[in-house]
């Protein structure tokens, strides 16, 4: 591979492909080619080029449609696409922008302009890749934290599924759903520095241990602040233990001060904590968890409407996670009494 990057050139006219290949290889780029839209999409998925130079006018699938497909797919949406056209029409440029094209070149190609555009977009792509690598490291750390406690296996995956499903029920946009998904994996990343003797302790925490545990949202926020692409998840990481009555932590926010996405993660985090085994207590049945969540919402934990939306979603879900086979039932105790007896850092059933 050329040291400058890999470029996919797509054109249905062979002489154009050959000419573009020569220009780019002369500048040190590795070049792969495709002669139609179908071949281009297959090559992009298989080869993951650093940049795509895409002719607008092609048979079957136009360059604009190929660009829209690339930009509309999560795995390839960050791949830079430059549309190339001999048509000097304003409408063509508008279509290209609407499809998500990163740039536009007119034929005949000016060599210096070509090199400048390609060089700039590949540099941006590599910076994006670096950010993705850093974010991937953080997501891995989230899984490492989960792996420290065998009782929380699959916790992040369940939270991501619950949170995004609830977000869809609330008609949140695609960006918010993506933030919820990432936030679900990173919400407890601040626990990375908490000793196992505290994190996995059976029974209630001491006052000092509870104070240490309650630092994890702020610590997680500080960690995420080092990666700019994680800025959107920081409100989730920092505020998923806040309460609408102001008795949460770390900032004692009230009501509408708490970001909606953080409230969503809080609701699904509490549900998952209640319905799975933890070092300090056994799992509850879903019905008891529902009642406990309703009780806590009424006492000032979070918006009752949000809890009811989640319960309605969970009851109607075909992928509903069943209760632990040994989940305790009410047994004559109120959810509040059970919470106070079994949860180390009440009023929140998660640590």
Characterization of the model:
This protein has 351 residues and is an alpha/beta fold. The chain folds into 2 domains: 6-128, Rossmann fold (3-Layer(aba) Sandwich), CATH 3.40.50.2300; 148-342, Hypothetical protein af1432 (Orthogonal Bundle), CATH 1.10.3210. It is built from 15 helices and 5 strands.
List keywords for this structure.
351 residues, alpha/beta, Rossmann fold, Hypothetical protein af1432, 2 domains, five-stranded parallel β-sheet, 15 helices, 5 strands
Helices and strands in order:
Elements: E1 6-10, H1 14-26, E2 30-34, H2 37-47, E3 51-55, H3 63-71, E4 81-85, H4 90-98, E5 103-106, H5 111-147, H6 155-169, H7 174-186, H8 196-199, H9 207-213, H10 216-224, H11 234-239, H12 260-274, H13 286-298, H14 304-316, H15 335-342
Parallel strand pairs: 1-2, 1-3, 3-4, 4-5
Could you provide a short overview of the structure?
Helices cover 52% and strands 7% of the residues.
């Amino acid at each position: 591979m050329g040291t400058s990057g890999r470029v996919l050139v797509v054109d249905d006219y062979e002489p154009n492909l050959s000419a573009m290949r020569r220009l780019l290889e002369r500048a040190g780029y590795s070049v792969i080619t495709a002669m139609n839209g179908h071949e281009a999409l297959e090559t992009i998925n298989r080869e993951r080029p650093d940049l795509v130079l895409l002719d607008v006018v092609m048979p079957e699938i136009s360059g604009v449609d190929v660009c829209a497909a690339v930009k509309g797919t999560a795995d390839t949406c960050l791949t830079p696409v430059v549309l190339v056209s001999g048509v000097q029409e304003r409408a063509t440029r508008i279509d290209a922008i609407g499809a998500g094209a990163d740039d536009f070149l007119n034929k005949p190609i000016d060599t210096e302009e070509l090199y400048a555009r390609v060089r700039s977009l590949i540099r941006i792509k590599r910076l994006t890749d670096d950010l993705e690598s850093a974010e991937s490291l953080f997501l891995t750390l989230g899984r490492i934290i989960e792996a420290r406690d065998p009782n929380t296996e699959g916790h992040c995956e369940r939270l991501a599924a619950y949170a995004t499903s609830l977000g869809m029920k609330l008609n949140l946009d695609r960006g918010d759903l993506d933030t919820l998904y990432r936030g679900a994996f990173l919400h407890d990343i601040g626990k990375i520095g908490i000793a196992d003797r505290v994190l996995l302790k059976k029974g209630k925490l001491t006052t000092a241990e509870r104070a240490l545990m309650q630092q994890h949202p702020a610590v997680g926020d500080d960690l995420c602040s080092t990666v700019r692409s994680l800025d959107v998840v920081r409100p989730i990481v920092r505020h998923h233990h806040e309460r609408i009555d102001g008795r949460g932590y770390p900032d004692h926010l009230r009501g509408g001060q708490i970001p909606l996405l953080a409230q969503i993660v809080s609701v699904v985090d509490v549900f998952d904590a209640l319905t799975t085994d933890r070092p300090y207590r056994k799992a509850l049945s879903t019905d008891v968890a529902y009642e406990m969540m309703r009780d806590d919402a009424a006492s000032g934990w979070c918006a009752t409407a949000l809890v009811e939306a989640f319960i309605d979603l969970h009851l109607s879900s075909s992928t509903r996670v069943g209760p632990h086979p040994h989940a305790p039932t009410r047994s004559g105790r109120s959810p509040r009494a059970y919470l106070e007896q079994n949860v180390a850092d009440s009023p929140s059933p998660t640590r």
